[in-house]
Amino acid sequence: MSQTVRLATYTTVLECTAPRLLFRDILPGKDQQIRAVLKVIAQTKPNILALQSFDWDAQFRAARAFKDALNAAGWAMPYLLVPRPKTLGPKPWQIRAI
Questions:
Q1: How confident is the model at residue 29 (pLDDT cuts 50, 70, 90)?
Q2: How far is the C-alpha of 40 from the C-alpha of 37, rounded, in Å?
Q3: What's the rounded Cα separation, in Å, for the pair 87 and 30?
Q4: Which contacts qualify for 61-67: CB closer than 8 Å, 24 or more apart?
Q5: Residue 64: which residues within 8 A CB-CB, separation 6 or more?
Q6: What 8-state DSSP symbol labels residue 91?
Q7: Percent of the chain clearing pLDDT 70 (strictly above)
Q8: How many of the other CB atoms lie within 10 Å of CB of 38?
Q9: Which of 28, 46, 84, 96 is least surrounded, with the fewest CB atoms within 10 Å of its CB?
Q10: Residue 54: which H helix or E strand, with range?
Q11: Quick one: residue 53, left, alpha or beta (phi over 0 = left, psi -120 to 50 = alpha)?
């Protein structure tokens, strides 16, 4: 028996001009752009999701908050991989899974 695996990539355009702004905006759930992104992903229900144009922080605060918000929107993604962007350092092989 075969199973369907849904792969999705999404250019979120959720980049901010200062650290932790995205994390701050995700928490209250009032930002319309963030809610729209969450709704599209929850409706698509991907098994694997790659987000582009998403703020990166060393503690993965924004990524974790987004994962929790996605769960609250109706689609739980049990794993999160947050690679360090190439623009932040010369070691692209240092990938941390949380």
A1: confident
A2: 5
A3: 30
A4: 61/20, 61/23, 62/20, 62/22, 62/23, 62/26, 63/98, 64/98, 65/23, 65/26, 65/27, 66/26, 66/34, 66/38
A5: 80, 98
A6: -
A7: 87
A8: 22
A9: 28
A10: strand 48-54
A11: left
Residues 6+ apart with CB under 8 A from 5: 47, 48
pLDDT at 92: 46
Q: Which of 53, 40, 34 is nearest to 8 (CA)?
A: 40
pLDDT at 93 over 90: no
- Whether 16 and 44 have beta carbons less than 8 Å apart is answered as no
Taking CA atoms, 78 is separated from 10, 20, 50, 97, in Å, by 18, 23, 14, 12
Highest mean pLDDT among 18-27, 54-63, 67-76, 78-87: 67-76
